[in-house]
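Field log, afternoon session.

UNIT: design team B
ACTIVITY: writing a sequence onto a fixed backbone
BACKBONE:
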């Protein structure tokens, strides 16, 4: 397998190819095949951009038909039938049934693009500059998104001061020792606190990059209430946790509140094609025409596959309550069994944005490397890569989920030297 060109010409900034040093030639469903014929089960799913697996046949068919029809591929924000179908379907299948009165904005097609649009809009609407974000948050690599990101290595990369934002403790930052919101409530109510009233607070309901930390639903609801009380806009960054990843289309649905602004990207196209949305309450739509733009906002092939995913998976609740719920029970059942076998290990996350935290910060990376040797792609997360992060496609068949969990269990046993008791099915029943 010739990898010379990657190591000689491609920049040192590359990262995933270092942990998974092989050349992938084929990708179907939950399996990627390498040039040497090795098959890898994929528990990474394009960092959450492939919630329906690789090359889903239904999406592929819609895409190929579109591409060979000579319909517009690129259209900035001009009107096309592909965009019309997407907007109509998104409204009918996602927004209306959830009672969400959101306008849909198409920013540039990446996660950081929708975050930048959200921050800009919040500042314009409120006339305030300051944004609050959370410890261990990750919102993207451009300057605005970095300014609300926690990771010090990523922040340092900006090379300039990241201003107009402050960090506040995420749920359970003090391991239950300090009452939640004590700091935030005091600071907002005290005119002597020195913290400028923010335009917005931006939050991930589950911190994907920051260690697969899931905020409690009641914490999220309280955060929303606090924002409402102080007329601060609440932005939910659902770039990674959205599009079904936590068990419902939006990750905040279970928590029973409506964010003012929602950032969506990664799996909205469902096929790995770049696409992003910024959703906001209609009265926040104060943009001037063209005030925020971008060349690649009209990615029509992405609109086509996005529409197909909505019709196939979200038009009723059969996928959510059936295959998705079962997949979540299978993964969490297995994780609970593995965690129970290892001293100090615990399960992190919600739905299929799940993790295993180990007391020894070296373990997760070693488990990921051992899993790769045994045919499984699984990554790590957290400031010290201390959490094994599992993001299988939502459509992964049960036997493949169990096979992947078996590889992880064996890797954990080898790395930690413990007997890991994993019995497919046992934990799933317990969790159901
Ligand atoms: N927000 C969140 C919550 C993310 O997880 C990510 C990407 N991991 C981003 C924003 C940035 O997305 P992108 O890499 O597409 O810019």
């Amino acid at each position: 397998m010739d990898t010379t060109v990657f190591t000689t010409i491609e920049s040192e900034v590359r990262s995933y190819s270092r942990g998974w040093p092989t050349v992938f030639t084929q990708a179907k469903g939950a399996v990627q095949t390498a040039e040497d014929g090795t098959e890898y089960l994929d528990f990474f799913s394009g960092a959450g951009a492939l919630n329906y697996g690789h090359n889903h046949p239904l999406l592929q068919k819609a895409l190929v038909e579109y591409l060979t029809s000579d319909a517009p591929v690129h259209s900035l924000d001009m009107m096309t039938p592909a965009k019309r179908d997407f907007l109509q379907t998104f409204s009918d299948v996602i927004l209306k049934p959830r009672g969400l009165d959101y306008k849909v904005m198409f920013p540039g097609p990446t996660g950081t693009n929708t975050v930048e649009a959200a921050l800009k809009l919040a500042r314009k609407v409120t006339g305030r500059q300051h944004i609050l974000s959370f410890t261990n948050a990750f919102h993207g690599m451009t300057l605005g998104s970095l300014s609300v990101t926690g990771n010090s290595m990523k922040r340092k990369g900006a090379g300039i001061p990241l201003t107009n934002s402050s960090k506040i403790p995420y749920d359970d930052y003090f391991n239950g020792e300090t009452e939640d919101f004590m700091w935030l409530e005091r600071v907002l109510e005290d005119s002597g606190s020195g913290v400028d009233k923010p335009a917005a607070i931006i939050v991930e309901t589950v911190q994907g990059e920051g260690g697969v930390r899931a905020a409690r639903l009641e914490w999220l609801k309280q955060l929303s209430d606090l924002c409402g009380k102080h007329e601060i806009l609440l932005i939910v960054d659902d770039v990674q946790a959205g599009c079904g990843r936590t068990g419902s289309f939006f990750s905040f649905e279970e928590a029973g509140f409506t964010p003012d602004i929602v950032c969506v990207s990664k799996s909205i196209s469902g096929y790995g094609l770049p696409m992003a949305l910024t959703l906001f309450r209609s009265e926040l739509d104060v943009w001037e025409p063209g005030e925020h733009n971008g060349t690649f906002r009209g990615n029509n092939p992405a609109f086509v596959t996005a529409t197909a995913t909505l019709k196939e998976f979200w038009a009723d609740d059969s996928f959510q309550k059936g295959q998705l719920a079962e997949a979540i029970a299978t993964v969490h059942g297995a994780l609970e069994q593995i965690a129970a076998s290892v001293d100090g290990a615990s399960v992190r996350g919600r739905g299929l944005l799940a993790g295993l935290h180990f007391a020894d910060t070296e373990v997760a990376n070693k488990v990921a490397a051992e899993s790769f040797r045994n045919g499984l792609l699984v990554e790590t997360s957290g400031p010290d890569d201390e959490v094994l992060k599992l993001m299988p496609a939502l459509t992964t068949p049960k036997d493949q989920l169990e096979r992947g969990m078996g590889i992880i269990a064996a890797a954990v046993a080898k790395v930690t030297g413990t007997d890991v008791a994993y019995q497919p099915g046992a934990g799933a029943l317990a969790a159901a």
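LOG NOTE: The first helix runs from residue 4 to 8.
NEXT ACTIVITY: expression trials, pending approval
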